[in-house]
Amino acid sequence: MKKTFIAAKQESKFNLGWLLGPLVGFVLLTLAETISFMVIVPFFMYQIPPLEIQLFSFVFISLVVVSWARWIEKSPWQGLGFTKKKAFRSFISGWGIGTAMIMSCVFLMFMFGGVSFVGFQFSPNLAFQFFILMFAWTIQGSGEEILARGWLFSSVSAKYHVLLGILVSSLFFTVLHLGNDHLSVIPILDLFLFGVLAALYMLRTNNIWGISGIHAAWNCFQGSFFNFNVSGTKASAAFVKVSLNGPDWLSGGDFGIEGSIFSLLVQLAMIIWLVYDLKKNNPSLFMSH
């Protein structure tokens, strides 16, 4: 039987508790943001778009978290979900799933009158910008996943129980976004559900690559293919321009697709499938470490 990332994480020098873990997580995040501010601010003089600068800054979150886990906790790479086998395949599969989820949300929003398509644009410059943003969104999504799932979820699950790990890491992920603009009840529920989905998907693939791909594609296609806001943040120019119609719970409003009830439904469907698949193929997973 292959070793899971949770079993690998149990080989760490120590694993923080369910309360101390999130607190240290916020400290690591603050440290990473401080370092990124000191390093990246000079690049503003080169007229690099703010969105790209913000997204690329997430590389510091990954570096700080990995450094803590490897040097302080003495965690093996697998304990963070870093595996060599099927890494690229898992990441590409994740991109495909994330893209399909966003497309499903947009289709449902269109069918029920939440959005309408008002324009399409294409140019070599826009295509090049989209390519750069694909890479930037990958860094951003992977950084959040390494912190919330690769490190915190695995740590709590290794010390206590998988279900507690899912709960703590999902709440932590939600709290990380409470400062976002245009937040309301549906986006908060949506963020929590994505945390649950991400943890379950990592359990299914036994690596960090797949969920990093889902996270990256979700944000990239939401803000850089369609022109929705991403978790309340306005993205750059996109290929497809949409117009929001009706109430925010239908269209997502200024928060983006994650403010629509259809995002909740799509994620719930994915969660139900993941739970079914995990219980079918690994029935003891939710009963023990």
UniProtKB/TrEMBL annotation:
Q: Is Secreted there in the keyword field?
A: no
Q: Give UniProt keywords alphabetically.
A: Hydrolase, Membrane, Metalloprotease, Protease, Transmembrane, Transmembrane helix
Residues crossing the lipid bilayer are 20-45, 51-71, 92-112, 118-139, 160-179, 185-203, 255-276
Q: Which InterPro entries match?
A: Rce1/LyrA-like_dom
Any idea where the CAAX prenyl protease 2/Lysostaphin resistance protein A-like domain is? 129-221
One Pfam family name is Rce1-like
Molecular function via GO: metallopeptidase activity
The UniProt entry's sequence similarity note says: Belongs to the UPF0177 family.
This chain belongs to the protein called CPBP family intramembrane metalloprotease
Question: What is the species of this protein?
Answer: Streptococcus pacificus
